[in-house]
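@here heads up, posting the sequence + SMILES for the zinc ion run so it's all in one place. Ping me if the SMILES looks off, I pulled it from an old spreadsheet.
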Amino acid sequence: MNWIERKILGFFVKTKGIFSAPLFGGKGIIFMLHRVLPENERNAFTLNKDLAITPEKLEEFILFFKQKGYVFISLDELADYLDEKIKFQQKFICLTFDDGYKDNLIVGLPVLKKHQVPATIYVTNCLPNGTAIMWWYLFENHVKSHSELILNSSKGRSVFQWENEPSAFSQFGKVSEAIKSIPGNELPVVLSQSFGLSVSEMEAHGEAISLSWEEIKELSNDPLITIGAHTMNHICLKQQLEELVVEEMKASKIEIEKYIGKEVVHFAYPFGGEVDVSKRELEIAAEVGYRTSTLNQAGSIFKSNKKSKQALARMPLGNRIDSERISNYINGIYHFSVNGFKKQKYQ
Ligand SMILES: [Zn+2]
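bot reply: prediction finished. Complex structure tokens:
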């Protein structure tokens, strides 16, 4: 952010978003969620805890936006809006849940049904296939009984050491970057050595909290639910060879379509940050046949996203997102503080 943008940000904050809202508030917001769990089932480690919203908080957000006059729409409706096939008088919200956790069906769906709110679940195929290695949870468990983590791959050797849990968790960002840089085909063996668990033990941990294909089919039969794709193995696409990127984005679509008997036209990039997605992936997403693809980057949805349907901004929603942050999502101050004048990504 340059000094002009910083000055303008100060003005936007001082005037409580009145001037930023028409410029940066946008027509709607896509929210990113993962799990829906009761408070007593949420994890201890903050970053993992934040992966789950409580059903009460989800309901509170739904009621808040409805009361503000927002309409909840599906990603098909969003795509139709961007293609100028339909119009909305009100501003809109799209809810999306990543990865394909079992609690989406058990805890999340009843809340969505109660308020007749549509949502998309982006399934990472390795979850229902029982081959997901959820290293973010394995790391949390590992920390409890170890004082180091060694990652040994063809990319080199990284050693992380800690004296207590807070110190371990403060290194999570670096651990995460190191794991994301490991080539996908080496990952199971590398993590097996790092965590001292067999590949099948790691997979069993993931399978227990993943949706099965039968449950995904059941969800897809619900008129409120859209099933989207999120790659086969939840790898950081930007760091992979093009051939593998195409395979991950194409095979996941085809396999989900086989199980649910419907076309899959919405995609979310794994991790979705600037370090995870490049222009190459946006082009591949369009070639593979996705109507929309979402990021994990600050921003609202504008009419002008017609030209960038493969790079839709999406922001997190969870128990720690307070009312001030929500106001700054709505009036665009939050995105302006991150992006400055740049409304659209990857241009
Ligand atoms: Zn994900």
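MO: Residues 135-203 form one domain.
MO: One more: The pocket of zinc ion is lined by residues 98-99, 230, 234, 270 (CB under 6 Å).
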